[in-house]
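Researcher: Final request for today, and then I'll write up notes for the group meeting. The sequence and the SMILES for S-adenosylmethionine follow.
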Amino acid sequence: MSRMKEIAALSEKGTVSLTELEHALQQLLAEVTETPGFEAGLILETVLGVSRTDILLGKTVCLDDQQREKLGDLLKGRRQRRPLQYLLGSWEFYGRPFIVGEGVLIPRPDTEILAEQVLDGVRDVPNPRILELCGGSGCLAVTIALERPDAEVWCVEKSPEAFSYLTKNNQELGAGVHALLGDALDTGCVEGTFDCILSNPPYLSDADMKELEPELSYEPAMALYGESDGLYFYRELTARWAERIRPGGLLAYEIGMGQHPQVAAMMRAAGLDAICQTRDYGGIIRVLTARTR
Ligand SMILES: C[S@@+](CC[C@H](N)C(=O)[O-])C[C@H]1O[C@@H](n2cnc3c(N)ncnc32)[C@H](O)[C@@H]1O
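Model: Predicted protein-S-adenosylmethionine complex:
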């Protein structure tokens, strides 16, 4: 019997132990992911509404038709290498759930480092005015607004699909971000100066785009591609927006692996200094910050 049929049979036989179900799911998912245990657990928690403890204790459950269908759809989707995050429809960032789906970049754990650096960088500024360029799901702008309720946070996103997720997340989480559908290269899209401008722009190069994992091909190219050398947005955003940062204010970027020397040079050329780099959980320099004089 194929593994898929095995799972169908298991889920149809009345009550089934979560341990048995998790084991069968793990075996199937091992064909498409390096973290089958993590994914199997998340799928069971989401579809059946059980807890990690229920699974560990091997509690028994009785699946209804809707749950069986949802489980089947999720497994089918994963076997097509659709990202788990899109299939679940929600993904956690900085401890909060963000609605995601095809058309918007999935929030990454490494991006939390950018949120932390921004929060740290404006810690002593009362009522900071903050602008995020290239906002995607809104994970950064929404997080920053919720962590700093006294801040005025603006966020610009060009893709209408991504913008719809940004506005949904902003509303659902009650963040009060001023969300703008517009081009981050157009400095006329928002007025005034800021205590911090941040961005996690598209930063993959031609070479990177050729080596995408199958799951990444489901994410919007517009969220990934930073032109041939991957540095297009850093070049343009730094040159255009540096003058809109208040004296002593912060420019903060998430960057791709190995991009720090070039991006730091762009920051210096725009008159910023106090350049600071922060590594991600894999030891790669992931965030660059700099201050205006
Ligand atoms: C790497 S994603 C980052 C999304 C989100 N900030 C995050 O960290 O998950 C880059 C985002 O920039 C958007 N984008 C691309 N070009 C843009 C432009 N010219 N102006 C504004 N947004 C743009 C993409 O649609 C995408 O949502």
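Model: The first strand starts at residue 15 and ends at 17. The chain has a mean pLDDT of 95.
Researcher: Thanks, that's everything.
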